[in-house]
Design a protein that fits this description.
CATH topology of chain A: Rossmann fold
Radius of gyration of chain B: 24 Å
Largest sheet of chain B: 9 strands, parallel
Number of domains of chain A: 1
CATH class of chain B: Alpha Beta
CATH topology of chain B: TIM Barrel
Order of helices and strands of chain A: EHEHEHEHEH
Structural class of chain A: alpha/beta
Strand order of the largest sheet of chain B: 5-4-3-2-1-9-8-7-6
Number of helices of chain A: 5
Number of helices of chain B: 24
Largest interface: A-B, 36 and 48 residues
Strand content of chain A: 15-25%
Distance between the termini of chain A: 14 Å
Distance between the termini of chain B: 45 Å
CATH architecture of chain A: 3-Layer(aba) Sandwich
Helix content of chain A: 40-55%
Shape of chain B: globular
Shape of chain A: globular
CATH superfamily of chain A: Cobalamin-binding domain
CATH architecture of chain B: Alpha-Beta Barrel
Helix content of chain B: 40-55%
Oligomer: heterodimer
Number of strands of chain B: 9
Largest sheet of chain A: 5 strands, parallel
Structural class of chain B: alpha/beta
Chain lengths: 136, 559
């Protein structure tokens, strides 16, 4: 599944104070079962902590999960910090309780894809396989 | 339950019936399908006296208001008083939430329930960098007593009971309630309500945590002791299965882990505070989820009451019958709702509410149809309230108590829930109790396994979610949803800064120092917290004292 022999590395992250981690943990498992390397940050991470973890773990993709309504601020902040660290080749996707009208706004900011409630694990895993390549 | 003759006839009858069914080709008709509950518990095609022959009517089923309370905790149940219509609500500023509360009360809500935003839930003020973007988003923002005064403006504190979903800073929000009651001239012996104040399920499932488990439990026992002595009508803890279920557990896991948590709290108050069990146990309250599987939920509620009665009488030797009874609030299952075809959520919520009532709940929150999209709009919240009112006033379900008692299926399922939950509790006892089990990640991983199993079943179409994996349609525009104005954050921070400027800052610093010193002793901290909020100390200032003294808990990130 990889071009360069390395497996796809994904950081599953929970930014902000939101404690709803059922989705993030289910996704982390699905990614692992699909053969990706997964790092899960655990809860209550600041955008700074998430970007630091992404750089340290050298991931290809960050999956952000927010169900508290704070996605507009937190997703944007993660993208800004990646850019500031010259790591904006790390793709970022998101999921959670996100109103449909916010989806185009988030994509415009640079979030590659948003998965809304009801998206199946297979669809999300398939998207990663189709769109993410190991960066080195 | 049955005479030998009845059992013999039932057994022979069933054999004959099964032959007939086999002849008629049942296997073909059932197409090899597996019949299971939403928790994946396999269910038989019929239940007979054989399935409940070991039950003893008076010992296991009996009468409402009488040990073991299988049929309900009050003798008259809904004939005496309807369950409390208690809608969980809170959004934006204290003004916004107060307005929603008055709307709901005017529409016939009979109890209040408060949703706080994440900074408030986690012990951060609105001006904390950690609060950026979250202020007022998924509940009301409360920083100081000033916000609380606005929140409770013109709410009759002596006649309405108020529930507050708050955990690490529970004692602080409760202290604010006590302080506003005091200002309104309502005695602490007259106010009623509930603070959730259940940290064990936070470590297991809901994940709003602040301090490590041991000091978290100590703060809880402080509130239980203080309530027992000074606020006799207050439920100082609401031992919650709701979030365990929302995190993806089965019904049995919800039941087992909740009761295991309850056992730990009772033990701690008895050991740490040396209180007689009968002095505080009558004010313990519970909170369950009502999920989609109708009979499984009813069985769970009935089993919960019976198990708790035995735990309190047999394990803790409680003598007061009020210590044996389990009173609980129920919320319909948020996780069962879909963003797709959201109006269908009204139907899901209705059957879940019906199960809660059949299960004998004391109060109920019904979710709004738009909760997978945002906080409920006023329109959606009002329909959710009306759902309860229609069930209470139009359907006749309140006429008789525990109408499903004696059903071969429901009694058998109740017994099964109880047996399986006991297996878990025994296992947790063997590990050294729920704190040790949490430390090992046991309940967390059991829930993660169930959540993943269920999601896989949905993905494979083995479990149907209408609108998601069956009867999918191209979506029309979603209903109009509630939006929290970004200006809320700005206004909230301005108010907080004004309060900080106007209060007696020397006095606040002194009280916080006293709290710090007391936190390092075994003293009950409630009087210090009350004193601090009276002087407009902020929530975070108090929490920061505890973070400094006790340290912070970090999510181990099990998945």
């Amino acid at each position: 599944m990889t071009n360069s022999g390395r497996r796809i590395r994904i950081l599953v992250a929970k930014p902000g104070l939101d404690g709803h981690d059922r989705g993030a943990r289910v996704i982390a498992r699905a990614f692992r079962d699909a053969g990706f390397e997964v790092v899960y940050t655990g809860l209550h991470q600041t955008p700074e902590q998430i970007v630091a973890a992404a750089l340290q773990e050298d991931v290809d993709l960050i999956g952000l999960s927010v169900l508290s309504g704070a996605h507009m601020y937190l997703f944007k902040r993660v993208l800004e910090l990646l850019k500031a660290s010259k790591a904006d080749d790390v793709m970022v996707i998101g999921g959670g309780i996100i109103p449909e009208e916010d989806v185009p706004k988030l994509k415009k900011l640079g979030i590659k894809e948003i998965f809304l409630p009801g998206a199946s694990l297979d669809i999300i895993v398939g998207w990663v396989k189709d769109n993410v390549k190991p960066r080195c | 339950m049955f005479s030998d003759k009845t059992l013999r006839e039932a057994e022979e009858g069933q054999k004959g019936w099964e032959k007939e069914v086999a002849k008629a080709g049942r296997q073909k008709a059932e197409k090899g399908r597996r019949f299971s509950t939403v928790s994946d518990l396999e269910i038989k095609s019929i239940y007979t006296p054989e399935d409940i022959k070991d039950l003893d009517f008076s010992k296991d089923i009996g009468y409402p208001g009488v040990f073991p309370f299988t049929r309900g905790c009050q003798p008259t149940m809904y004939r005496g008083r309807e369950w409390t219509f208690r809608m969980f609500s809170g959004m934006g500023s204290a003004e916004d939430t107060n307005k929603r509360w008055h709307h709901l009360l005017k529409e016939g809500e009979t109890g209040l329930s408060t949703a706080f935003d994440f900074p408030t839930l986690m012990g951060y003020d609105s001006d904390s960098p950690r609060a950026r973007g979250e202020c007022g988003k998924c509940g009301v923002a409360i920083d100081t007593l000033r916000d609380f005064e606005i929140l409770t403006h013109r709410i009759p504190l002596d006649s309405v009971t108020t529930s507050m979903t708050i955990n690490p800073p529970a004692s602080i929000l409760w202290a604010m309630y006590l302080a506003v009651a005091e200002k309104a001239g309502v005695g602490w012996d007259k106010i009623g309500g509930t603070i959730q104040n259940d940290m064990l399920k936070e470590f297991i499932a809901q994940k709003t945590f602040m301090l490590p488990p041991e000091p978290s439990i100590r703060l809880i026992s402080d509130t239980v002791e203080f309530g027992t002595q000074h606020v006799p009508l207050w439920n100082t803890i609401s031992i919650s299965g709701y979030h365990i279920r929302e995190a993806g557990s089965t019904a049995i896991q919800e039941l087992a882990f909740t009761l295991a948590d309850g056992i730990a709290y009772v033990r701690d108050v008895m050991d740490r505070k040396k209180l007689d069990v009968d002095s505080f146990a009558p004010r313990l309250s519970f909170f369950f989820n009502s999920h989609l599987d109708f009979f499984e939920e009813i069985a769970k509620f009935r089993a919960a009451r019976r198990m708790w009665a035995h735990i309190m009488r047999d394990r803790f030797k409680a003598k007061n019958p009020r210590s044996w009874w389990m009173r609980f609030h129920t919320q319909t299952a948020g996780c069962s709702l879909t963003a797709q075809q959201p109006y269908n959520n009204i139907v899901r919520t209705t059957t879940q509410a019906l199960a809660a009532v059949m299960g004998g709940t004391q109060s109920l929150h019904t979710n709004a149809l738009d909760e997978t999209l945002a906080l409920p709009s006023e329109f959606a919240a009002t329909i959710a309230l009306r759902t309860q009112q229609i069930l209470a006033d139009e359907t006749g379900i309140t006429n008789t108590i525990d109408p499903l008692a004696g059903s071969y299926f429901v009694e058998s399922l109740t017994k099964l829930m109880e047996e399986k939950a006991w297996e878990y509790i025994n296992k947790i006892d063997d590990m050294g109790g729920i704190l040790a089990a949490i430390d090992k990640g046991f309940p967390q991983m059991e829930i993660a396994d169930s959540a993943y199993h269920y999601q896989r079943q949905v993905d494979k179409g083995e479990k149907v979610v209408v609108g998601v994996n069956k009867y999918v349609v191209k979506e029309k525009a979603p209903p109009e949803i509630l939006k929290i104005d970004e200006a809320v954050e700005e206004k909230q921070i301005a108010r907080l800064q004004k309060v900080k400027k106007e209060r007696d800052n020397r006095k606040v610093a002194q009280i916080l120092n006293d709290l710090r010193a007391a936190s390092r002793t075994d003293k009950n901290l409630m009087p210090y917290v009350i004193e601090a909020v009276r002087e407009y100390a902020t929530e975070q200032e108090i929490c920061d004292v505890w973070r400094e003294v006790f340290g912070e808990y970090r999510d181990p990130g099990f998945y």
